[in-house]
Design a protein that fits this description.
CATH class of the domain at 184-282: Mainly Beta
Number of strands: 13
CATH superfamily of the domain at 184-282: Glucose Permease (Domain IIA)
Largest sheet: 9 strands, antiparallel
Radius of gyration: 40 Å
Strand content: 15-25%
Length: 288
């Protein structure tokens, strides 16, 4: 018989365990019985745990990858980037072709040499890379100022390009295989229109070794004019041209250190028959 006043309520801990029956024949699940503080914390933790679980189990969205079809092109004599891009229908034109092959071509898009292997339709660089996010606004390359009109005279002669020449005729130095400069140079930007100095017939139009892409025109007085380092040719052999007619675009093909027009006057069609082009043009009223 219990003694009155001696019965003690058992001391409960902050966390006590109890048993809840799921029903007759059901499983018995042990649940922690928490104090007021612990229960409140559990209620707060539950949504976060549910969110974390949902995040963990949600499958990542698949990312589709597409590799552009690539082809290889071997540069031949007389090629230039805009011609290659047009002939091979390169999306983005010569700018994209140059961008994809910059490591092969180098810093000057006008200087490509026979034998170079160019990738068409994709980057020439090896390895797998992730595309960078597109900029909010594409950069725009600055446009060179338009040159003034080429000089002309009543004698039927014109200057080959606008402006004055820099490197003089017969300037000496190791830059030239003959030991001296066989013409004069005009420092014009790539793409400047190059004009025939007077009427004549085209006898050369194509790759000229160190001269890069060149055009040679025979004139009625027996002299020849030569235009070197062109980025594009506008005429072909046998074509008759008039004074001031475009025969090509200036560039930096061949053996050069930068874009310019190399211009010669010759007594014959080949290298080594050069005469002073400044004096020749001056005799026809053209000062360069």
């Amino acid at each position: 018989m219990p003694i009155s006043g001696k019965h003690r309520r058992p001391k409960s801990s902050t966390i006590a365990r109890g048993v809840a029956a799921a029903g007759a024949g059901g499983a018995v699940i042990a649940l922690p019985l928490l104090g007021a503080t612990g229960a409140h914390a559990a209620e707060q933790a539950a949504p976060a745990a549910h969110s974390a679980a949902a995040t963990h189990t949600a499958p990542a969205a698949p990312v589709a990858k597409k590799q552009a079809e690539t082809r290889t092109y071997s540069v031949v004599a007389g090629d230039y980037l805009s011609k290659i891009a047009a002939d091979n229908k390169v999306d983005g034109g010569w700018e994209k072709l140059y961008q994809d092959n910059r490591e092969v071509i180098g810093g000057n898009p006008s200087l490509i040499l026979p034998g170079m292997k160019l990738t068409l339709g994709g980057s020439a660089a090896t390895g797998t890379t992730q595309a960078a996010p597109a900029p909010s606004k594409a950069p725009v390359a600055p446009k060179p100022a338009a040159p003034s009109a080429a000089q002309s005279s009543s004698s039927g002669y014109v200057a080959p390009v606008p402006g004055k020449h820099t490197t003089n005729y017969r300037a000496s130095g190791a830059n030239w295989s003959s030991g001296s400069h066989t013409g004069i140079d005009f420092p014009v930007a790539t793409g400047t229109s190059v004009k025939a100095i007077t009427s004549g017939t085209v006898v050369t139009a194509g790759w000229g070794g160190a001269y890069g892409n060149e055009v040679v025109v025979k004139h009625a007085d027996g002299h020849y004019s030569q235009y070197g380092h062109l980025s594009a040719l506008s005429v072909s052999v046998g074509r008759t041209v008039s004074a001031g007619q475009q025969i090509g675009l200036s560039g930096a093909t061949g053996n050069v250190t930068g874009p310019h027009l190399h211009f010669e006057v010759r007594t014959g069609p080949a290298y080594g028959s050069d005469i002073d082009p400044v004096a020749f043009l001056a005799s026809h009223g053209i000062s360069v």
